[in-house]
Specification:
With about 350 residues, the chain is mostly helical. The protein has 13 helices and no strands. The structure holds fe (ii) ion (2 copies).
């Protein structure tokens, strides 16, 4: 190689290395994070203000985990669980305990990777809440007996699937709109049964925090989705549908323990579906239009729901398929109106 060519090659190499370092640097400390703020639509501006409010609410409503648990233990004279309920609580709350750790890690990753300040603040506030949820639940379960050392196969699969998500949109959808509503459902049902007054009162604190967490997904996802191509959105919808369907396997895993607590698995499924549909409809509202996949999504889910946990004892598989198809068409237990009503309201507001 002649000298001028060698010099030009080495100049180009130095330049591309400098560019690489600059790009990496921008990712770590994005000085341009406020550049798009002036271009925000009114809708985006409103979402950003709400996200920032989540952080401030998180700060003013933060409860001192250890003090609250001690106070509830004193108030009720400790944990009151029958042996049958103890085993069931340990099984069902193994999901909650390790799910809280998963939520802690997911929100910490969101706090690291989200660029807009308001969304980052909301995720940071969530990570703070999830840390408290994890350690308090661990202390409560230690008071019950043995702290569950892990979760069953299908729960493990879903939690890992979300934690290993290769896109922030998947992390937000999986954590905020599948796992959080499922956790809220379990909290609600167990609290209503009053199986243990300490747990019942404790879950009120959890539910209040979790409702804020769902809002991060609802408010920030539209911005992420808008930046994705149609193809990416569809791939995300497929991923989401599969994650959503995996819940049925989890419910099957804990069905006998839910029954021991007096919770019918079909009721759990119906309530989880309601919360997830509401979250999806809110997401559609935040995007200003109905999501193209939600209708298909709901029908597939209702088919699977009826098939997995049939309302009646069908005489044959064919009859079961017909029953499931009926649910897919008319909504699970005729609950399709819920989705349609919310979807219509979202479209009207758009
Ligand atoms: Fe939590
Ligand atoms: Fe949460």
């Amino acid at each position: 190689m002649t000298d001028p060519i060698r010099r030009a090659a080495s100049r180009a190499k130095r330049k591309s290395l400098r560019q690489l370092v600059r790009l990496k640097r921008q990712g770590l400390l994005p000085f341009s994070m406020f550049d798009d703020v002036a271009d925000r639509t009114q809708r985006e501006q409103r979402a950003a203000q709400k996200l920032e409010r989540i952080y401030h609410q998180g700060q003013s409503l933060a409860w001192e985990g250890r003090a609250v648990l001690d106070e509830l233990m004193q108030k009720h004279g400790g944990v009151h669980l029958s042996p049958a309920h103890t085993a069931a609580i340990q099984e069902v709350f193994a999901i909650i305990l390790w799910g809280e750790l998963a939520a802690w890690k997911a929100s910490a990753r969101l706090a690291m990777e989200l660029v807009p300040m308001d969304a980052k603040m909301a995720a940071t506030s969530q990570a703070h809440d999830e840390a408290r949820h994890f350690y308090v639940m661990r202390e409560y379960l230690a008071a019950v007996g043995e702290v569950p050392g892990g979760v069953k196969k299908h729960t493990d699969k879903l939690l890992l699937r979300v934690l290993e998500a290769d896109h922030l949109a998947k992390l937000l959808l999986g954590m905020q709109l599948v796992i959080e509503p499922l956790a809220l459902t379990l909290f609600h049902l167990v609290r209503e049964r009053r199986v243990d007054p300490v747990l019942g009162d404790l879950l009120v604190y959890y539910e209040r925090d979790e409702a804020r967490h769902v809002a991060l997904g609802v408010l920030y996802l539209p911005e992420v989705l808008r930046r994705m191509s149609r193809r990416e959105q569809l791939s995300l919808a497929r991923w989401q549908l599969k994650s959503y369907l995996m819940q049925f396997d989890i419910l099957r895993e804990i069905e006998p323990h839910l029954a021991a607590l007096g919770v019918d698995v079909r009721e759990a499924m119906r309530l989880a579906r309601k919360k997830q549909v509401q979250a999806t409809a809110l997401l559609a509202e935040a995007m200003g239009r109905d999501l193209p996949v939600t209708e298909v999504f709901l029908r597939v889910v209702d088919f699977k729901a009826e098939f997995s946990f049939p309302r009646e004892r069908y005489r044959s598989t064919a009859a079961k398929v017909v029953g499931a198809a009926r649910s897919a068409l008319s909504g699970l237990d005729g609950d399709h109106a819920l989705f349609e009503g919310l979807g219509r309201a979202a479209r009207d507001r758009a």
